[in-house]
Every structure is written in structure tokens, then in C-alpha cells.
Amino acid sequence: MPETLIIYSSTNGHTKNICERLANFFNNTNTTKIISLLEATKFDLTKFNQIVIGASIRYGKHSKDLYQFINSNKDILEQKNSFFFSVNVVARKPEKNTPNTNPYVKKFLKISKWKPKKIGVFAGKVDYPNYGFFDKYAIKLIMFLTNGPTDTSQSYEFTDWSKVDNFARELDINS
């Protein structure tokens, strides 16, 4: 039975939610495990047929830990069916919601030099009520500059869940 490892790097939990949605597609034909990036450093990746890594953007960057993990495991990832997706709010814009047009995905692939078999990009969530003071107003400024929502009493989810589902279906074909 194919085994899939889904690894998430998430600041506020939305990327983990997307990973859980992906896992729902694999559970019929697969043994699927979802773990954080921190937990993944303790796993033997060679035991999995598929590895999916999902990572969020915070202040314009993927985490340094993500780059270190990819660098340490790139050979294994490239031998497996490995997949990557990025979650970022800039992907709410149609002209920046594909792997070829999203600046964060392009930068990630250039820096990491990893070549996943499939790449996805999903719009994320701005959850002002759950942010601390600094994050709330820093993100509000970013949203103001990019013509996004700035009412800090609200949450704004931009994720196109049908796009997530389609990505999952395409990965499940590869299992």
C-alpha cells in the first residue's frame, strides 16, 4: 500500500488545514501521515512513496527551517514522488496564483534548487482577530499596499478549495 507523508510549515495553521484536506483524498488508497516540519526532521523519509510539503509565507518569505530541511533531504525528495505547494495571500490575485506567476514559488524554487514533481500555489488567509498587535498592523500595512482588506476586526479566507481538491486529485493519480 502506498504511503504518503504530508509535511506542513505553517505560522497560524491554515497550511495545516490545507494538508488535512489533501489527506482526505489519499485516505481511500493510501496510508497518510501529516506532520509539522519540525517533526519531519526526525522521520525517515525513505519509508514513504510520496512526500508532499506545504509551506506558508510570512512577511514575504518561506521559513529558513524549510530551506534547511529541503537542503538536507533534497536527494531523497528527488528520488521520491515529491510535491510542493505554497500558501500565500498574494495568490489571491489571478495574475499571481500559478507556480509560474507566483513570485514566492519562483523564488523558493530558485533558492532551494529542488525540483518537485508537481507544484501548487494556494491563496491563504488573513486572520486579523487572531494576530498579535505587531502582526496585525504589519499585515494591515501590507494589505493596504497591495489593495487587500484592512478591517482588522475580520478574517479573510482567499483559499480556492476546489483548486486544492484538484491538486489532491492529481497527486492521488501518482500514488
Mean pLDDT: 91
- Please mark out the parts with pLDDT under 50 across 5 or more consecutive residues, or reply none: none
Shape summary: globular
Oligomer designation: single chain
- Per CATH, the class of the largest domain reads Alpha Beta
Using the coordinates shown, work out and report the CATH topology of the largest domain: Rossmann fold
Q: Count of helices? A: 6
Keywords, separated by commas or semicolons:
alpha/beta, 7 strands, two-stranded antiparallel sheet, 2 domains, Rossmann fold, five-stranded parallel β-sheet, 23% strand, 175 residues
Overview of the molecule:
- Helices cover 39% and strands 23% of the residues.
- It has 175 residues and is α/β, with parallel strands linked by helices.
- The protein has two domains: 3-124 and 159-173, Rossmann fold (3-Layer(aba) Sandwich); 126-157, no CATH class.
- The chain has a five-stranded parallel β-sheet with strand order 2-1-3-4-5, sandwiched between helices.
- β1 (3-9), α1 (14-26) and β2 (31-36) form a beta-alpha-beta unit.
- α1 packs across α6 (161-173).
- The radius of gyration is 16 Å and the shape is globular.
- The chain starts with a strand and ends with a helix.
- The mean pLDDT is 91.
TL;DR?
The protein is α/β, with parallel strands linked by helices and 175 residues long. The mean pLDDT is 91.
Indicate the topology.
Blueprint (H helix, E strand, L loop, with lengths): L2 E7 L4 H13 L4 E6 H4 L9 E7 L7 H16 L1 E8 L14 H10 L5 E6 L1 E3 L5 H13 L9 E3 L3 H13 L2
Parallel strand pairs: 1-2, 1-3, 3-4, 4-5
Antiparallel strand pairs: 6-7
Helix pairs in contact: 1-6
